[in-house]
Amino acid sequence: MPKRGQLRVLLGAAPGVGKTFTMLEEGRRLIGEEKDVVIGIVETHGRAATAAMTAGIPAVPRTLVEHRGVTLEEMDLAAVLGRAPQIALVDELAHTNAPGSKNEKRWQDVEELLAAGIDVVSTLNIQHIESLNDVVEQITGVPQRETVPDSFLRGAEQIEVVDLAPQALRDRLSGGFVYPAERIDAALSNYFRLGNLTALRELALIWLADEVDQALKGYRKDHGIDRTWEARERVVVALTGGPEGETLLRRGARIAARSAGGELIAVHITSQDGLRTGNPATLAEQRALVEKLNGTYHQVIGDDVPTALVEFARSVNATQLVLGASRRGRVTAAFTGPGIGATVVRESGDIDVHMVNHAAAGSRFTLPPLTGALTRKRRILGFVVAFLGGPALTTLLSLFRSEDSITTDVLSYQLLVVVVALVGGIWPALFAAVLSGITLDFLFIEPLYTIHIHQPHHLLSLVLYVVIASLVSFIVDRAARTTRAARRSAAESELIQTIAGSVLRGDNALQALIDRTREAFQLPGVRLVKAEDVLATSGEPLPDNQHTSIRITEDTTLELCGPDLAASEQRLLAVVTAQLAAALDHQDLEQTAKQIEPIAASDRVRGALLTALSHDLRRPLAAAAAAVGGLKAAGPTLARSDKQELLDTADESLAALAALVADLLDVSRLQAGVLTIADIPTDPAETIAPALDELHLGPTDVTLALSHGDALAHADPVLLQRVLVNLLTNAHRYSPAGVPVHVSTSTFGDRLEIRIIDRGPGIPPEKLDDIFLPFQRLGDTDNTTGLGLGLALSRGFVEAMHGTLTPEDTPGGGLTMVISLPTTHTSQEQP
């Protein structure tokens, strides 16, 4: 088999940034290096500069495919394979081939070329990457049906961003270098908005940076490299929930800003048993600050805070760690040993650690913190206090020993027993009690230097020491357990607050829940599966039969990859699963709401018609009544011309009244459920022409630029014609004499747009919403311009057809009304 060819992809944020031009430029360079280069297919879209670049590059003739009576040109895959060049230039990687072609998609053609050992240089826009499809739709409002799988794209040897500043791209578009003149206004007002282009540009750069980052991680994993590579600064700030957090975050942000592409990552470590000293309100404020600083916030549960912090930093490939100086005093530190900061410094390896001083550092003396139901570390510490405190106290008391000091000596040793009980619990306290009793008898009670209980009350003293130690230890242990339960509940509440905050800020509810679940329990991977479809996933891919499944609903399960969760974690997991169930219910309700949208559309039509009829019935009825009344009152004395004028007035008014009554009958049928809106493929040209005929508008009144190709709109032809009649009437009425109205059509994504453009006085921005109120006319003074159904009724009809009616300013003055309807087919790729 031949060696597989290499794929190079030129990635752009939007059409027109110069991908095809760059590809042809690269083809010329390779020919200059005596490489065998051919053009498999290039789409110039009528751009003269691009077409000029094809000169001098051999091209394989295209194949012709007949579809619906239209001849389409596609790349001749068999001819390119037969030609077997070293390098093939193949434009528009995401293109959908014409029906009847060997492969459905062009990227599949490219796959065959690569398998045959042919190198390929291709082009792609960011909106055509499968994983970014929904993100681009949120930005632009345009769904993309033509996509390339991420797995195929990641297999490319080279991916290069062809970049152009958003305003420069808009200038290029305005100059006619991207689209024909009739499509410029629509493109600038929709897909090519400055905000859209900026967001798409950022998305392209971030996607490529992430791909480079994944490639770097893969390389390090394949070569067993554990140390951090400082490709870019990633600064992790450890938050405890204390007041020093704001200082740490701002310091971390400054460190990240010193290098291009630096990232700020904040993390709060909650101990496995739920204990922490953080203030939830303070953490919420600090999380908001993280977002203002363009950072990300994470919450992690770990048994050992320093270890969990270092492991998290390594998992995100951090280069810097920012911690606050310890709030413990020197005395406390002497008893409890090195703190979190010292441990992190020791375990951080090649991650730089910044210890930031703050106002609360070492500011007060505290006893060793009560961190739960007496861990092994605390018990050992209790024995250490007993071993060191006993001799120290004995030495001190010996210096001031007298016959009258025995009471002070006894109370001092009793205090030592209480302190040991507070620190280490019952076993260290019992040890201290026995040791202090022996010491008292040996050094302070006659006869000295012997262990002999001569008096019964001496034995009673020793028993009292043991009882006191036991009682104090019991109280300490019970208080610690109560504190543990309370703080565990607080930790669970904080996690739920974190999840709810992610959802309320607009994050995807299911994805936010899955991400926080993985972080909270430190699992390698988590995913939510419904039937056989993966609804959301986070972390590493889950191996088959090596995960724990938890049923959420009848057909939905949560799958956890990693060790079994402890019993103390199951309750928190139950809360998360309840949140997941609620999110799934909410998702189902949204889908149900979408299903009843047609009913709401019919209601909008009914409301618009009733509003129109309530206004317009009065005028023709009054005119007809007045005309008939005039005829009756004048009798035979009325002049023939006057009689004819009254008859004409009555005839016109009654005809208009008949039309309105017909509308009323339609409303009655709609209310009865027997009149529905037709939703059929409609050619807008077939509704524009009758509308112009009805208004008797000719070439001097209206100019047409219909460039929608063979695209058809989902619409009701009758309703669409009535909307066009109303909009054309308004546009012709307000256009200056001798200046025709311009009507254009174009396709944009899966939408077909009809634009009615006039050069009249336009509408002030503050009045744009008012024009859709029933029967609002410019200046609201013209009541002689015919019946009409008003813009309110027009918008109601368009929205009922799942479309939109939007007013825009005409460049140079005037008003442009844009009808946007869903399409059934487009013959060419749209951005």
Automatic annotation (TrEMBL):
SUPFAM superfamilies: Adenine nucleotide alpha hydrolases-like, ATPase domain of HSP90 chaperone/DNA topoisomerase II/histidine kinase, Homodimeric domain of signal transducing histidine kinase
Family annotation (CDD domains): HATPase
One Pfam family of this chain: Usp
Membrane topology, from the record: Multi-pass membrane protein
Predominant location: membrane
Entry-linked SMART domains: HATPase_c, HisKA
Segments traversing the membrane: 380-400, 412-445, 457-476
Gene Ontology molecular-function annotations: ATP binding; phosphorelay sensor kinase activity
Keyword flag Iron-sulfur: no
Keyword Transferase listed: yes
Catalyzed chemical reaction(s): ATP + protein L-histidine = ADP + protein N-phospho-L-histidine
The protein's name in its UniProt record: histidine kinase
